[in-house]
C-alpha cells in the first residue's frame, strides 16, 4: 500500500510541476508578444542614422 501512495504523490507532483512550467512558458510568450506589439507601434524601430549600412568586410577582388 505504501508504494501505491508514494506513486500517487509522485504523479500529483509531476502534474503540478508540468502545470507550473506551462504557466511560465505562457507568461514568457505573452511578454514577448507584448514587446513585439510595442516595437511595431513605435516609430523608433528605424535606424537613428540616415546612412546606408556598409558591409563590414571589403569585397573580394
Question: Could you characterize the architecture of this molecule?
Answer:
By secondary structure, the protein is mainly alpha-helical. The protein has 1 helix and no strands. The longest helix has about 40 residues, at about 1-40. The chain is elongated and about 80 Å long. The termini are far apart. The mean pLDDT is about 85.
What is the CA-based Rg, rounded? 25 Å
Helix content: 55-70%
Order of helices and strands: H
Q: What best-fitting shape do the alpha-carbon axes yield?
A: elongated
SSE inventory with pairings:
Elements: H1 2-41
Keywords:
66% helix; 1 helix; mainly alpha; elongated; 61 residues
Summarize the structure.
By secondary structure, the chain is mainly alpha-helical. The chain has one helix at 2-41. It starts with a helix and ends in a 20-residue tail after the last helix.
